[in-house]
Design brief:
With 272 residues, the protein is an alpha/beta fold. The chain has helices at residues 41-44, 50-63, 123-139, 156-166, 181-187, 203-208, 241-271, and strands at 23-27, 33-38, 143-146, 172-176, 193-197, 211-215.
Length: 272
């Protein structure tokens, strides 16, 4: 059998099931039900990719390490310039410095030094890991949706009341917008409540929380918002209107130019 007769097999792509449509009960700050809301299947209805999820979370934990550990080598330890004892006649092993790693008070051999633990992770993997984490929380029914926080001033008592009305226990991750400063300060004193913005949402934060709380402003409705992997703005729907305004401005300028040309033509005809 020659090489051309052998069957060459490439990487096998695992067939994953189609996204599932899941629902969540929408509530207000008083805990009253406002009806079910369908979650985006391509965000909350995927089968979690555990391999990618593990790799991305490991990279995120590694990037959070400070990496400031440090030890001194024998060249960095103070002292040790003189020979501690004679070369011969003592019965001991010869030593040239009292700061040798084998001696007390000496330097450390092969000790840790400041370094970066950051791992390079492709954006597509970060996006898939986040979608897998969101789908996992939606699959076990650990996603809550609120229409509005109804918090006008920083007050911890109001934050505790909202969580009690929503019947959320354990570690709660609350996704806010950048301008919801009063809501963020209201939850800042609660040890089991963690706030994050829409643009800073990560797979690790989603997995370590028992409940994930969205509002009408921060609930993602399209997987395109994670392609970057996040938007620069908080609101998931804040990308399309800006792209339509420049053509309108150009159209206005063209009309004004045409009007000016017509007026100049009329003036030239009158003078003639």
């Amino acid at each position: 059998m020659t090489l051309t007769d052998t069957v060459r097999r490439g990487p096998v792509k695992k067939e994953r099931p189609a996204p599932v449509v899941r629902t969540v009960t929408r509530r207000n700050a008083s805990g009253h039900d406002l009806g079910p809301v369908e979650l985006e299947p391509t965000i909350f209805g995927l089968e979690p990719n555990l391999a990618v999820l593990h790799q991305v979370v490991t990279a995120q934990l590694a990037a959070a390490r400070a990496g400031t550990q440090s030890t001194k080598t024998r060249a960095e330890v103070r002292g040790g310039g003189a020979k501690p004892f004679a070369q011969k006649g003592t019965g001991r092993a010869r030593q040239g410095s009292s700061r040798s790693p084998s001696m007390s008070g000496g330097g450390v051999a092969l000790g840790p030094k400041p370094r970066s633990y950051r791992q390079h992770t492709p954006k597509k993997m970060v996006r898939l890991a986040l979608l897998s984490a969101l789908s996992d929380r939606a699959m076990i029914g650990r996603i809550a949706l609120i229409d509005d926080w109804a918090i006008d001033a920083p007050k911890t008592k109001d934050a505790v009341t909202v969580l009690r009305k929503l019947k959320l226990t354990g570690h709660v991750l609350i996704v806010l917008a950048h301008d919801e400063v009063d809501v963020e300060r209201s939850f800042s004193n609660l040890p089991l409540a963690q706030t994050t913005t829409y643009s800073e949402l990560s797979a690790h934060d989603v997995l370590r929380a028992d409940w994930l709380v969205f509002s009408d402003r921060t609930l993602p409705r399209s997987p395109d918002v994670f392609s970057g992997t996040h938007l620069t703005d908080d609101t998931p729907e804040a990308s399309s209107p800006l792209a339509e305004s420049p053509p309108a401005a150009v159209a206005v300028s063209v009309e004004e130019t045409a009007t000016e040309e017509d007026s100049l033509t009329e003036e030239v005809g009158t003078d003639a």
